[in-house]
Amino acid sequence: MFFDRPESGELAVLVHLDFSSISSPEDPREFEELAISAGADPVAFVFGRRATPDPKTFVGKGKLEEIRTMVKGHEAELVIFDHTLSPSQERNLEHELKCRVLDRTGLILDIFAQRARTHEGKLQVELAQLRHMSTRLVRGWTHLERQKGGIGLRGPGETQLETDRRLLRARIDNIEKRLQKVRGQRQQGRRSRERAELPTLSLVGYTNAGKSTLFNRITKAGVYVKDQLFATLDPTMRRIDLPNVGAAVLADTVGFISHLPHRLVQAFRATLEEAANATLLLHVVDGAAEDRLHIIDEVRAVLEEIDAHEIPQLMVYNKIDLLQDVAPHIDRNEAGEPVAVWLSARTGEGVDLLLEAIAERLGEQMVQGLLTLKPQHSKLRAQLFECHAVQDERYLENGECELQICMPKTELLRLMAPYPACAVDSPLWRPAS
Predict the structure, then answer these.
(1) CA spacing 20 to 30 A to 388: which of 95, 137, 217, 286?
(2) Residues of the chain above pLDDT 70, percent
(3) What are the residue boundaries of the Hflx-type G domain, all occurrences included (predicted)?
């Protein structure tokens, strides 16, 4: 973290160990994709198996010597571990290997730092990095290790560390205050949507599941899409129109990953609140992934951590264009309610089925009927059209107009409140049979 970094193409040795004490080990293929996404150039992959990590260097002496040989043979500049290392383990490994060492958390933080585009995203990444860095400050001052303590013998190393820690704490406090303001602004936006009775749909799922491609397919937003991990970091929101429902808000959120570092979950809480406050979660899954059941469990674990696990979910199995003999379709439960949609966001197959399923899930709170309006109710008529609630309209001989309405009941009651003559219990309103 305190070493000079080239802009890209760092030669890296990757290290992955399987531990018998860990029930759900990391996926080595995903680890390699993470390293490549960060800009590393993997030149060697070291595998091993242990009962428990070595408290000093995480790996045993034999494996450490193997890694050292790989580093020298390939002239690697970086060793990346697919695990979480303690600050002392990182420091000891760097001393033994004579190069920079990075763990899984540091690797993901580096990717997030590259992907952040908005002011909020950059603040959240910096906060996570500073918290991670605060436990590793001493590593940057190993050239002052020989400074002795005691009266008259305190060297500049101790003074510098204290200064850095104080500056870090001040910067962390400053960022947290600014993020608190961002959180307030997001809450204000959510309150505005609640007042307008706009349902919010949040795309959640594992990284690289195709959320942004699906978001672009539905909204024509043109957000950044690439076949890489964490291509999307900053959330994007767009208003969409759903059949028989009307207006809704669709949010594209950051992707999850196996064992997502807790610091990132905490730092990105303001962003992840979009999922925690959604009306319906669209859980996007790579339908072509062999381990999709494990991936679904990992996403649900993160949703539970941000208190979003009780929000209704609609499963969206994407990438059916990579599967054989799988056509777009809707899976329903015993009550006939849509629970999953199979589609391809890249080709557009099945997206219409997704919109239909969403409309059905949101339609539980919808009301339909005929509303008769007199000429003096032209303002209410305009508001109903603005909400995309009017399905059909016809004028009667006496000058009144008859509207066929379909919209959320709470929104209808809010619009009709200033017009008691048009209330849902008045003769002018006829609910659909």
Answers:
(1) 217
(2) 75
(3) 199-366
